[in-house]
Amino acid sequence: MFEAQPTALPGRNDPCHCGSGKKYKLCHLRKDQAAAPSTARVKRPAPVMGLEPAAGGRGARAATLIKTPEQIAGIRKAGSLARQLLDLLDERIRPGATTEDIDRWVRDATAAAGAVCAPLNYKGFPKSVCTSVNEVVCHGIPEERVLVEGDIVNVDVTPILGGYYGDSSRMYEVGRVSAEAHRLVEVTRECLDLGIRQVRPGGHVGDIGQAIQAHAESNGFSVVRDFVGHGTGVIFHEEPQIPHFGRRGHGLPLRPGMVFTIEPMINAGDWPVRILADGWTAVTRDGSLSAQFEHTLLVTPDGVDVMTA
Ligand code: MF3
Ligand code: CO
Ligand code: CO
Fold first, then answer.
1. Ligand 3 centre from 248 Cα, in Å?
2. Are 290 and 268 contacting, i.e. CB atoms less than 8 angstroms apart?
3. Are 275 and 141 in contact, with CB atoms under 8 Å apart?
4. In this structure, what DSSP letter does residue 309 have?
5. Nearest atom within ligand 1 for CA of residue 125
6. Tell me: the pLDDT tens digits for 109-161?
7. Whole-number Å distance between alpha carbons of 221 and 182
């Protein structure tokens, strides 16, 4: 996920993004403004992640909202590798393993597949995967820490294969975990599934956030605001942004060929986060548990295709 930031929407006098041919100010401007998270509630840190060079595989060009068939084929291969990497960890994550072990397992398997780990050296990130344990919301850095029975850990992998990115994460329960931790993990998994079910041409980005937010909050949990899903595939983090909260019918209309992640971070307590002194690790301010699942998705002519399944 990346930090929520202002979205590149059309200028007031540019054609509207919905394809109506009308000027943006006469079409979706007001609706989009209503859908935008209010600045009072959402921290919008400065770094803009849209300016990265593409990884440079064949056919990988500048990022665009709509991917070509060739790009989609490449993203699908990277996505299926991401899934295999996460599957590999099912058996291995158990009490006694360290988060550095996870980093090494993923790094070695990624290299064996002829791919590269996107997180390594990404804006200075020091490791090959993110490992986020218990109250860590995201961007946890693998270290000596030994996992113990009862921990919950998210592992987020992004292999670059043939120049294309596949971004996916899931939760692992270490041994037996508390009933409350298990419920958080299951509700978060359901949030991602419900978000995915909203994806179809003619739908809106806000439909995804609304479905996720409703399910999390009706279970007494909260949705993290500071990090959002994102376009991906040709560049690690592209437009559009995909908030995991929002209003049905609002936000960017979805069109076939769009590729983006949905990656809800759900807290057992309240949603504010803070970043540790390492500059990366995001934790819940109230110390409550946090969980996350992530898939990379393609909008198809009749719905959605999960590229990391
Ligand atoms: N994989 C993360 C995401 O879902 C991004 C990690 S950036 C890193 O977008 F630098 F922390 F690796
Ligand atoms: Co992501
Ligand atoms: Co990710």
1. 25
2. yes
3. no
4. -
5. 10
6. 999 999 999 999 999 999 999 999 999 999 999 999 999 999 999 999 999 99
7. 13
What are 220-277's pLDDT values in tens digits? 999 999 999 999 999 999 999 999 999 999 999 999 999 999 999 999 999 999 999 9
pLDDT digits (tens, 9 = 90+) for 273-291: 999 999 999 999 999 999 9
Q: What does the alpha-carbon distance between residue 67 and residue 63 come to, in Å, rounded to a whole number?
A: 8
Mutate to test the pocket of ligand 1, among 158, 232, 242 (most ligand atoms within 8 A of CB): 158
Maximum distance among all Cα pairs of the chain, rounded to whole angstroms: 60
Residue 130, Cβ neighbours under 10 Å: how many?
A: 27
Cα 307 to averaged position of ligand 3 atoms, centre (Å): 13
Determine phi and psi for 301, rounding to 5 degrees: -60, -30
Distance 83 CA to ligand 3 centre (A): 12
Counting from 1 in the atom list of ligand 1, the atom nearest the Cα of 261 is: 4
Element (H, E) at 154: strand 152-157
Distance CA 3, CA 49 (A): 9
The pTM for the full model equals: 0.86
CB 104 within 8 A of CB 129: no
Give me the amino acid identity at 246. Answer: G
Query: In the numeric block, which tokens belong to residue 214?
Result: 């409703």
User: Given this model, what pLDDT does residue 5 score?
Assistant: 66
Query: 147-175 burial string, b = 16+ CB within 10 Å, else e?
Result: beeebbbbbbbbbbbbbbbbbbbbbbbbe
Q: Which residues pair with 241 in a beta bridge?
A: 230
Cα 57 from Cα 110, distance rounded (Å): 16
